[in-house]
Amino acid sequence: HEVQRSVSPMQMKEENMDLVVTKRINLSSNIKEPFELQAFPVDCQDLPIVMEFSTFGRGGPPISLQPQEGDTLSQVERHGLLPEFNTRAPLIGFGCTKQMVGIGNDLKPRVEKVPFVRIQVKVQRKAKPYLVKVVIVLMLIQLGTAGAFVMDPVTQFESRLGHTSTMFLAAVAFQFIINTYTPNVDYLTMLDKYILAVNVHI
Question: How many CA atoms lie within 13 A of 58 on its CB side?
Answer without folding.
Answer: 9
